[in-house]
């Protein structure tokens, strides 16, 4: 089960990498009249389910959780919720790459924490170290760090044509 769990944890990252680097291809594939952000969100939710099932397959649960669990997990989820609340689906799921006009956000956590959604996700994963073997958390975090690097090198000229 270990190699399959590793594969499951890493599965979304090639998809995200491809969409980030080839946004026009994704917009064209989605077709006219279909929102590429919404479709990306649906595919991403499937991948997230696959990741959670992969972690669950190698986890051992005990109660109560360690003391560090609650602050890490709750703060991590708060950051994720706040990012989604401020950016919405289109801002969260590469809307600017797909040619959408997404307003620049400076409210907390933006301007305070660099890459707050990734930071929140990493915090939530680290909270689960008592139950999930280190390797699987490490691979997932490595995937996030890879995407932080990829997304920091955005070339605006490579964005998709604006959606009409």
Question: Which structural class should the secondary elements be placed in?
Answer: mainly alpha
Which percent band covers the strand fraction? under 5%
What's the quaternary structure here?
A: single chain
Topology, number of strands: 0
Mean of pLDDT? 93
Termini separation comes to 46 Å
Spatial shape? globular
Q: How can the largest sheet be summarized?
A: none
What's the Cα radius of gyration? 17 Å
What percentage of residues falls in helices of 4 or more residues? Answer: 55-70%
Number of helices: 7
Q: What string gives the helices and strands in order?
A: HHHHHHH
Low-confidence stretches: none
Characterize the structure shown.
The protein has 164 residues and is mainly α. It has 7 helices and no strands. It has helices spanning 2-10, 12-21, 23-30, 36-58, 69-92, 116-127, 134-152. The protein is globular, with a radius of gyration of 17 Å. The model has no long low-confidence stretch (mean pLDDT 93).
């Amino acid at each position: 089960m270990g190699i399959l769990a590793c594969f499951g944890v890493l599965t979304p990252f090639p998809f995200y990498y491809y969409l980030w680097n080839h946004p026009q291809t994704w917009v064209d594939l989605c077709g006219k009249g279909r929102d590429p952000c919404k479709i990306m969100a649906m595919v991403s939710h499937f991948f997230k389910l696959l990741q959670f099932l992969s972690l669950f397959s190698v986890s051992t649960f005990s109660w109560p959780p360690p003391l560090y669990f609650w602050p890490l997990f709750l703060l991590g989820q708060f950051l994720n919720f706040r990012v989604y609340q401020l950016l919405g689906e289109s801002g969260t799921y590469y809307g600017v790459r797909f040619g959408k006009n997404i307003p620049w956000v400076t409210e907390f956590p933006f301007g305070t924490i660099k890459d707050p959604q990734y930071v929140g996700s990493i915090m939530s994963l680290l909270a689960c170290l008592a139950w999930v073997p280190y390797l699987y958390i490490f691979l997932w975090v490595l995937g996030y760090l890879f995407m932080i690097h990829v997304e920091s090198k955005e070339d605006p000229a490579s964005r998709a044509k604006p959606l009409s």
